[in-house]
Design a protein that fits this description.
mainly alpha
């Protein structure tokens, strides 16, 4: 069985550990939350890209 290690890339490792300790939800990094957030951002930006399947020609579709 393989194991996964986490590494802080942006920010300070000490601050990351402090935030995890203060979290009421989880005490470890949960990759599924990161992936879900990434997908949400990509879907929200899709209408702005010209050559995507979510391209929006009308200004009404871009307003929230």
């Amino acid at each position: 069985m393989s194991s996964m290690r986490t590494k802080v890339i942006l920010g300070k490792e000490k601050k990351s550990k402090w935030r995890l300790d203060a979290s009421a939800v989880s005490k470890s990094v949960n990759i599924s939350f990161i992936e879900r957030n990434t997908l949400t951002i990509k879907q929200d930006l899709m209408p702005l890209g010209r050559k995507t399947n979510g391209f929006s020609k009308g200004i009404g579709k871009l307003e929230t």
